[in-house]
Structures are given as C-alpha cells and as structure tokens.
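Could someone model zinc ion with this protein?
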Amino acid sequence: MSTPIRLTDAVLVVVDISGYTSFVQKRTVSLEHAEAIVSELIESIIDHADHPLVVNKLEGDAALLYAETRGAREAAAASAIRQVSGFFTGFATSLQRIGTERRHCDCDACANIGSLKLKAFMHIGEIVIKRVRTFEEIAGDPVILVHRMTKNALPLREYVLMTDAFCAAGGSDIEDLRSIRERIDGAEIALHWCDVDAIGRRAAQLPVATSPAPAPAPDFERSRAFAHLPRADAAWANAGPIAALRQLLSRWRGR
Ligand SMILES: [Zn+2]
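Reply:
Sure, complex below.
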C-alpha cells in the first residue's frame, strides 16, 4: 500500500520562544517550572491559530504551522500576518498572567518569566503533505528553509523574519521592513524582518477574512517541476510519487 502523498502550495510559520535555553540552564527547581511555563505559552499561541492555519508539530519551545494557499496566496499570506500578530498579543497576555500566578515562586524560571520573548518565521512554497495513519507530516525544501531561518545572525530576541517569497505574497507592505543576507546551506539568501509593532500595524490594515468556513476542495496550481506527477487532488491512495514511480517501472519492464 502506498503512503498518501500530495503536493500543495502553503504558507509556513514557525514560532519560537527565545530565552528558554539560558532559562533552563540555571538549575534549581527551575527546570520543571521552565518546562511548564514554556508549554503553557506554546499552548496559548496555538490556541490562537485559526483556519486555515493548522498546527503541524510542536517542537519543544517552538511550533510549526501551515496553511494551504489553494490558489489564493495573497489571502493566505494576509491571514498568516493577522494570526502571527495575534500570537504576539496572546503571548504577551499569557506571559503577564503566568508571571502573576507564579509571583510567589523564587526559582530562576518563575523569577525570569519576563525575559522570555517570541520570534516568528514565515515562508511560502510548495510542500509535500504525507499522511501516515492519522498523522499528517509535511516535508520539502520550504519546510527545511523555515527551520534553518531560526538559526540566523540577527542579534534580537523578538521579531518576525520572512523570506523573499513570503514578502512577494503579502509582506511587502509592512512598514520598517529591513533586509539581511544569511548563508543557509552554503547559499546566500535575502531575508526580511520587522518588529512586533510593525506586524501589528500591518495586521490592523488588512481586511478581516470574509468567511471562516473552509475553502472548497483543493485545486491548486502545480509547479512545472511536479507536473509529471498525478494530480494531488485525485484519490489519495492512487495519487502521489510512489504510484507514478510504479507506473514508470511497469512501463520500463514491459519494453
Ligand atoms: Zn518556579
């Protein structure tokens, strides 16, 4: 049985809590409290995630989310900007609440809650969605790139960092967008960043999504690189690169 695989264009968002590493290195009772605080903060962020943005994976002090663009890149990028802005607001509110709740604990974790900050990384590109039993895994170069972006040289602890592709889809109207060049996997690429206030101002300018209802069945555009593969919105079990490979093999054997 082949694994259901399909290709789709998607917005990718990684949110990452910084300050965690130095936080847990200060040993006392703090290790346990640090874990609890960060888990609660990550939960408060993903609780704010709304259609079409879905949480794909929790990675300790970070989370990976994605939204299929379904042929409407600008709308998907705008929705992601609004939601990321909401993540920062939710993070700040939760930080304050947790700080108040834990004000009587003097462990390093609870005493330094205020030093935790949030970063967000945004990209857009064609990914592979693989369904393994009830789990959905996402893969592809864009997924690797958005993770690599978290290891950048920006000497800041709170910001939103975007790729050229994301900017082209919806980030270019953000005020005070600044560019940096980063070496990722041996290649130099341009990235663009702004502070939390700038993303908040941009989010406030964007029109509110007209309908929260899920979009109809995907009929997304396919890149030429994958044009030889069966359409992703065909029956899951028969579509995908594995089925294509089988077809090729049987044709080749028949010669
Ligand atoms: Zn504590």
